[in-house]
């Protein structure tokens, strides 16, 4: 099964800046990876889209798309 991704911020509209973090868990892989975009496009498995654990600062209307994969 694919890894499970949870977000530190619930998906809804906010009127203030948000800092988003992801938690990625997998029942078989100790280090699953997550890739993301902030324009709603499908993330690809490249370093430019790799989530590295840092806050994602959101200041405007944004659609975040996430792809979680096993190593």
Could you describe the 3D structure shown?
By secondary structure, this protein is mostly beta strands. It has no helices and six strands. It has strands spanning 4-7, 18-20, 22-25, 33-37, 56-58, 65-69. The strands form three sheets. A two-stranded antiparallel ribbon has the order 1-3. A two-stranded antiparallel sheet has the order 2-5. The protein is globular.
Kindly summarize this structure in a few lines:
The protein is mainly β. 0% of the residues lie in helices and 34% in strands.
Features of this protein?
single chain, 0% helix, two-stranded antiparallel ribbon, 71 residues, mainly beta
The largest sheet, given as strand count, sense and whether it forms a barrel, is: 2 strands, antiparallel
Counting DSSP H or I runs of 4 or more residues, the number of helices is: 0
Distance between the first and last residues' Cα = 12 Å
Strand content: 25-35%
Q: What is the residue-mean pLDDT, rounded to a whole number?
A: 94
Give start-end ranges of low-pLDDT stretches. none
- Gyration radius (Cα, Å) is 12 Å
Q: Tell me the overall shape.
A: globular
- The helix content, as a percent range, equals under 10%
Helix and strand content put the structural class at mainly beta
The number of distinct β-strands equals 6
Report strand order across the widest sheet.
Answer: 1-3
Listing every helix as H and every strand as E from the N terminus to the C terminus, the arrangement reads EEEEEE
């Amino acid at each position: 099964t694919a890894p499970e991704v949870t977000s530190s911020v619930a998906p809804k509209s906010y009127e203030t800046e948000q800092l988003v973090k992801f938690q990625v868990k997998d029942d078989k892989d100790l280090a699953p990876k997550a890739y993301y975009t902030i324009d709603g496009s499908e993330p690809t498995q490249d370093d430019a889209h790799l989530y590295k654990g840092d806050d994602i600062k959101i200041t405007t209307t944004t659609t975040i798309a996430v792809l979680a994969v096993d190593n």
